[in-house]
């Protein structure tokens, strides 16, 4: 009889173990700047009915995404993070390929762009930034101004012009070892081929001013230090909103060109998350058109992916933008070897 009772007790414990336990905390590692992410995390903590406390870790370094990803890797045997909110995508995909992310039933429409959701449902992209050319309008004339003056248009229109000798030392790029610039050229490697992408990077290193980050590129353009540069929409909009003489150009818009690249924020739940239920609830709360609208309305003017978004960001032009078709999962393949090749090109920059 004693063994029967013990068996019954163990069965009850097993059943209880199958029931999601009450989770009062959720730990978020966020590479999105605190002033953008915190209000939404705070709203979740205050408004939802789950009584969940959000514990946030932000990194303020220029290589913050890499730092947070390295910490997640270091903690993989004893995860502390529940939800990773990345402000880009490539390093999220690296975590996916290492098997450190959990599958999740993302609450997005069936027509969500295929490049904005993981093939195995471990991450989902939303609220993107675009890679754009920022032009100093005191230094260069627009197509309209050029037509009126009888001169040819001088605005650059393609990322490839960073290697054009006519812009020698008068255009700028962020060092393509971190952040969205690294992601951009990893994507181009898949579209152009490895050798062609490396050749383009070498030509750019020989021709353009190489700066530490996209913000520094945007500031160099607004100050007139260079005529134009490749940067992100959020950094470009800051200079534009401050009243500097700059214009934003979405590159490679002709039918025979690749289009402009958009790089989304991503959400991912850690495979061994200490609080998986709370993490799922927070992920579903954030992955909504309302979140995208709030990010679109903010200073970063981020680009909603959802067709249900109601707020068009100020950064978008009046004409539709042709977007590059990106395979981010392919771009993350062989990342360490690719990063080493790029680092050799820019070792002296």
TrEMBL record:
Record's keyword terms, sorted: Signal
PROSITE patterns membership: PROKAR_LIPOPROTEIN
InterPro entries xrefs: Ferric-bd
Record-linked CDD domains: PBP2_Fe3_thiamine_like
Protein known as: Iron(III) transport system substrate-binding protein
Species annotation: Neorhodopirellula lusitana
């Amino acid at each position: 009889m004693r063994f029967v009772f013990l068996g019954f007790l163990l069965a009850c414990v097993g059943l209880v173990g199958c029931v999601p336990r009450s989770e009062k905390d959720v730990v978020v590692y966020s590479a999105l700047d605190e002033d953008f992410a915190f209000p939404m995390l705070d709203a979740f903590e205050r408004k939802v009915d789950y009584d969940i406390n959000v514990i946030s870790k932000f990194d303020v370094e220029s290589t913050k995404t890499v730092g947070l990803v390295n910490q997640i890797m270091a903690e993989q045997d004893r995860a502390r993070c529940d939800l990773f909110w990345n402000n880009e995508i490539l390093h999220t995909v690296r975590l996916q390929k290492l098997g450190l992310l959990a599958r999740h039933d993302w609450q997005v429409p069936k027509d969500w762009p295929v490049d904005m959701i993981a093939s195995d449902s471990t991450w989902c992209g939303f609220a993107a930034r675009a890679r754009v050319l920022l032009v100093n309008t005191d230094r260069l004339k627009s197509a309209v101004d050029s037509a009126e003056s009888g001169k040819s248009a001088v605005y650059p229109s393609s990322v490839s012009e960073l290697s054009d000798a006519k812009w020698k030392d008068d255009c700028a790029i962020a060092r393509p070892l971190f952040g969205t610039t690294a992601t951009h050229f990893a994507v181009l490697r898949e579209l152009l081929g490895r050798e062609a992408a490396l050749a383009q990077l070498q030509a750019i290193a020989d021709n353009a001013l190489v700066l530490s980050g996209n913000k520094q590129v945007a500031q160099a353009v607004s100050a007139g230090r260079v005529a134009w540069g490749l940067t992100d929409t959020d950094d470009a909009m800051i200079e534009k909103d401050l009243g500097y003489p700059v214009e934003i150009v979405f590159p490679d818009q002709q039918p025979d060109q690749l289009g402009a690249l958009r790089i989304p924020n991503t959400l991912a739940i850690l495979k061994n998350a200490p609080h998986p239920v709370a993490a799922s609830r927070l992920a579903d709360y954030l992955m909504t058109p309302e979140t995208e609208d709030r990010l679109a309305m903010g200073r970063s003017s981020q680009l909603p992916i959802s067709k249900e978004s109601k707020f068009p960001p100020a950064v978008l032009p009046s004409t539709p933008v042709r977007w590059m078709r990106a395979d981010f999962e392919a771009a993350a393949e062989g990342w360490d070897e690719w990063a080493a090749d790029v680092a050799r090109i820019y070792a002296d920059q």
